[in-house]
Amino acid sequence: MKTKTISLILFSFIFSLFSCEQKSKNNIGTITSKATVIDLSEFKKLVKDNGSVIKDVHFFQLETNEKSLIGNVNKVLATDDNILILDNRSANSVFNFDHFGKYLGKINGQGNGPSEYNFLEDMDLDSDGNLYLLDLRKGDILKFLIDGKFIKKQKFGFMTYKFGVLEKGSYIFDQGTRDNTIFKNDVGLDYKLVIWNPSLQKLNKFLEYTDIYDSPRYPLPNTYNLYRSGNKLNYVKPYEYNIYEPISENEIMSTYHIDFGENKVPKSFYSNYSNAKKAHNLLYDLRKTDYAFNIINIYETSKYLCFNFTAGSSLHWVAVSKKDNSVYVRDLSKMALEDYPFLLLPQAVLNDEFITILTPEAIQYYVDLLGKDKLEETGLSILTEHKLNMNPILIRWSLKDSF
Fold this sequence. Notes:
five-stranded mixed β-sheet, 9 helices, globular
């Protein structure tokens, strides 16, 4: 309770400083819709039992030494030359590797200096490949060159969950699902997204909270709601079915709508969890139904839109062809080893390739589940040769041209 009180006081202080500057330029942003409807109303009939669409799978052991050792993989970003891995739990650092797993260095500057941070919550890239780090405790955004050279620091004033970098010096902040009533001020914490241009001191708010989906009593089903594919960001609200893209500091657009038909969670279902005690069971009870929910890992290439969703107790993966809107669905709990089930949880996009980082714990799980002999027969000796004290394995993979 003491820790929570200190955090509330800290955020209140940050907001009080910031709101004085924003009072006259705090606007409601424009939401437009050109949504492509993705029909998954019959997704159970679309689930493929075999016939992988994965091709060109390449495994690379991330170089392991005392400077490069990763404890947790919290986020992954890719550039034309780099794979960036955020470990904000064990190392509080960003690790930099090339596309073949060679260690290039890291950003690790915990402290109170101009280029230092206290706690890294998130990271993102701009179109020039510059790296931005979100220090949640100090309320700072730090900008670096990809090689770790510090450029500048920018203080922000939002109750944020995650963030992204937009063009023309703007940032987008995800304010999550939480009780914001004690923080009411000119920033406007009754909205899900805030886009802020610090040079213009201009702020726009998007997607007002709704009682049904955004009540703080509901636990968040996933960690990240903003996903970067190259120069594009995608956003999805927890428990909802629209995918949004920030177009400018003044506008976001609904670009995709996932239609699950009768498998969509009805609003009446949430009304059964109107108090905090019952709300803790929401995700548990959803997994006992046939409803589809929790859209995550939204990544795009030039040919495909891909994402995961949960239906009952099973995690599914979807690929949608941009050419003809055809859909490919897999139930990850029913995939054969030859279909590489561990790949279909991508964490980044590099041009037309997907990036998956397979942690030591996940590797050990597959070794124990499938057995060393089976893995080696399938050509996956890189997994059986892996040791728990080694870094994760980098996997780059792509999709066939047609389903």
